[in-house]
Design a protein that fits this description.
- By secondary structure, the protein is mostly beta strands.
- The protein has a single domain, classed as Beta Barrel (Porin), CATH 2.40.160.20.
- 12% of the residues lie in helices and 65% in strands.
- An eight-stranded antiparallel beta barrel has the order 1-2-3-5-6-7-8-9.
């Protein structure tokens, strides 16, 4: 009789323990991940003209996270582009054209997060960003005619915060705000960037 009761107790404890183990696995934010992101992008050159331009940022992110209890540590890298473009004409000569466009943006950094629920991670991030800005100038009426292009790669720092939500064991969504600053440039411009992005990704 005692043997039968032991078997019943073992089966019951296994039935209770299995869902608990599965739930623990569901709460894991550890491992490698890849995601696509898109959102709002604003660049402000902070000059005397206070020129700000809005657009859309888009790209991808990869990273790796380590979870210890309710705390998550991670590293990540990101490549994005932007739709921001500013056009002017008759800048220096009649009929000339000037375009300044935001190019690729590279980012590498780390993040620290805390579980706010079984499927929700709140986190802060910091790292290095390198953004490219492309300037095209043409003046067909000047002598000689001019057609110039310059690419400026500006390095700076980024801070951000966001939330990540598990949709399944492998799939997640996120929303994030980040601020980037590229420091004072030789031309007196001190560019900065504000972005709000959303993303969807997978863990593997």
């Amino acid at each position: 009789m005692r043997t039968k009761l032991s078997i019943v107790a073992l089966v019951a404890s296994s039935a209770v323990g299995a869902p608990a183990f599965a739930q623990s696995q569901d709460q894991s934010f550890a491992g490698s991940h890849a995601e696509v992101i898109a959102g709002w992008d604003r660049v402000n050159d902070k000059s005397s003209f206070d020129a700000s331009r809005d657009g859309v940022t888009f790209g991808g992110n990869i990273g790796y996270d380590i979870q210890r209890g309710s705390t998550v540590f991670g590293v990540e890298g990101e490549v994005t582009g932007s739709s921001i473009s500013d056009r002017s004409s008759n800048v220096l000569n009649a009929g000339d054209r000037l375009r300044v466009k935001a190019g690729r943006d590279l980012y590498v950094g780390g993040r620290l997060g805390f579980l706010a629920g079984p499927n929700t991670l709140l986190y802060a991030k910091a790292g290095y960003t390198n953004a490219q800005f492309i300037t095209d100038y043409s003046s067909p009426n000047s002598t000689p005619a001019l057609d110039l292009r310059a690419r400026d790669n500006l390095g700076g720092w980024r801070l951000g915060a966001g939330a990540e939500f598990k949709l399944t064991n492998q799939v997640f969504a996120k929303a994030e705000y980040r601020y980037s600053n590229y420091g004072s440039q030789a031309n007196g411009v001190d560019p900065e960037r504000h972005q709000i992005v959303t993303g969807i990704g997978v863990r593997f």
